[in-house]
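Consider the following assembly input.
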Amino acid sequence: MKLRDLPAADLCRKPIRTAVLTVIAVVLSAAAFGGQLIVISLQRGLDSLEQRLGADIIVLPEGAENKVDLKNILLQGTPGYFYMDKSITDRLAEIDGIEKLSAQYFLVSANAECCTVQVQIIGFDEDSDFTVKPWLKEAYDGRLNTNEIIVGAGLSTRVGHTLKLYGVECKAVGKLEKTGTGLDTAIYASDETVRGLIKASAKQGIAVLSKQSPEDVVSSVYIKAKDGADIDMLAAKINTEIDGTQAVRTRSVMTETADRLNVISKSITTLTVAVPVLAAVIMFAAFYLISNERKREFAVLRTIGFSRSGLSRLVLTEALITAGAGGIAGVILTAAAVLPFVGVIEQKTALPVLAPKVSETAAYGAAVVVIVLLTGSLSAALSAYKLSHIDTGKILREGC
Amino acid sequence: MKKNILGIAELLTALLLTIGSFTIFKACGAHEGKYMACHWAQNAVTLIGTVITLLALLRILLKNKGIKAGLASGVFLLAVSVIFIPDSVISLCMMDTMRCHTIFKPTVIVTACVLAAVSGIDSAVGITKAGKDK
């Protein structure tokens, strides 16, 4: 046997000891990587929501339930609708401090073509829009014609395919980027298309919608304040001057979401720190105890000519093999257990979740493996020092 | 027992895939009396899962090493094919937030990947051993 094969042979000779050390490394890397992955995904989801909204203020019809409905649409993708008089848009335009405003109209489909679930349909004004088009991943040429739609990333409909809404074939001409928010499952259409859908709904016996046409009502108005404008003052001004509406600062929606995210993040971070620290302590203890158990083995190796540095190298190589295998296995298992289930985490926490890109995830994984390798090396270094400084003669004579 | 450890792991994973596909991680249920697209993907997974379970059972019961390796290879190929059933071969529902996308698809893919990994190793080990015995 070659000397370089000795560490692997040692590990194979003691499978239970090797398995225990590897499992400790798996726990360490899984806790560190899994916790970090979830916290980062939640943080990215929140950032994405902030960017996705793209407005400083959202004006809704008065009523607490409308704000709840808006949050459900934004965070969970639960379809909802509420309306206010369209003239409010003109009155808002007269208020100082507003740079851009764009109205949207919310409609809920009765049944989508392939499955019996409701879909949020959002009618938007292409001329004034500043919240939908910036998220177009697959751009369409020109404007949205009648019965043409843009679909969110969370819908399986592809560009060029059609989707039947209230019996009307609508062609998808654009797809938005994934944002991890409830808006990923929405469909965007021009007011003209929405009017057509309302007419189609009336033919199907859902006449209640025809009383609330986009010609007369809107659901929400997204407002971008001018640079330097006091957004709180602007929201207060809208609330005072325009009856029947409530101006909600997008940050207030964000703050409540951020508060909940903080609570969850803190719990996960505590576990992310506590479990790896505990695993590292156990790893240190395990290597220390193993060093006692292996005194005779190392004394024999010293007598047959192994140098101190050779023994240290042997211990460190064994530690690197177990820590490396455990670290890589922990990262792969955690990625397999967390990444495919991002949708479930999103639903259970009711928070926007956006998993990091593959390259970022790989970088986090590599960093965790390096940390596990360092922890393994440090744990083994103590044991290596102890074993390389043993009194060979005494151990062989007395057996301890 | 020690000789059949991979076979037992295959059988347990195949059972999880088969029984789980219509219980704990089943696709979306019937709505207003109608089944959605994902129901057929679920049926396909259950059917192939049943075949894999029978193959894994035979893999444990039969003694011939060559046949064991062949059965493990069959389990491996079927497990790989299951990975592609949800959403690639058979479409699921239209929204990413629906149960078939959030629970059924990822669980089937992860379970099938585990099964493919175990049966792949079993198959490779079995073929090597059967070759040496000749």
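Residues 6 and 121 of chain B are 8 Å apart (CA to CA). Ask yourself how this observation constrains the way the partners meet.
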